[in-house]
Amino acid sequence: MKNIVLVIMFFGLNLNAQSLESFGLKGNVKSIQEEYKRCSKSDIDADCFPLSSEMKFSKDGYLLKNKNSLEFDGISREKKESPTGWLETVYREEDSITIKLAENYYDKKDLMYKTISYDESGEVFITTQYFYNDVRMLIRMERNTLNYDGVKERAVSFFNEYGTFCGLEFYLDNKLDEKYEFDIQYEFDETGNWVYYYVVDKFNKSVFTRTITYY
Asked: What residues contact 39, with CB distance under 8 A and at least 6 apart?
């Protein structure tokens, strides 16, 4: 689970955080093209895992589009209102069979506050909760699951003022097992938005580049 959490966290999340401020962005951003490369410490290209994403914003600073290469073919989403906001159910079509992958719960301000992920048998696999600051920026995420030995695992991820995944704590049966804090090296553009960062963790090294256009 640890390496899976690291890949997802370093690449980013689609949480419907709507405004530029909630993404930690400055200026009148029009679009962001992001390229992510996560490699083993061997420096061999064959050991690298590339990803890409794209975000587009309106002139008044709100998210219009968020697409990333973790989206797979055959994925469909069904949305409906709920007492707390709305519910998005994610399905995958495989060999003419519809499989439920996850349920995403949003509040009335359109922020995701909980995700329930399911395994192939339809059993709950991971439950995730999301926590935000006053400007609706994600600052903490908690993922809970049971491992094969029946031990409760909890991964608590932390995000800094730029919205970057910067730390991780793993708990086994509510006892701290491992803790990571990442030394992230940034480069910024003239507006003050980061366009490059580099970080090495226990498992791999990650390089993230951005191409930002402004109105």
From this structure: 45, 47, 48, 49, 204, 205, 206, 207
Domain extent at residue 96:
2-214
| Residue 83 clears pLDDT 70, i.e. is over it | yes
Around 7, how many Cα atoms within 13 Å sit in the side-chain half-sphere? 15
How far lies 10's CA from each of 157, 182, 207, in Å?
10, 11, 9
* CATH number of the CATH domain containing 210: 2.40.160
> What amino acid occupies position 46?
A
DSSP 125-147: EEEEEEEE-TTS-EEEEEEEEE-
| Overall number of domains in the chain | 1
Q: Each residue of 173-193: pLDDT tens digit?
A: 999 999 989 889 999 999 999
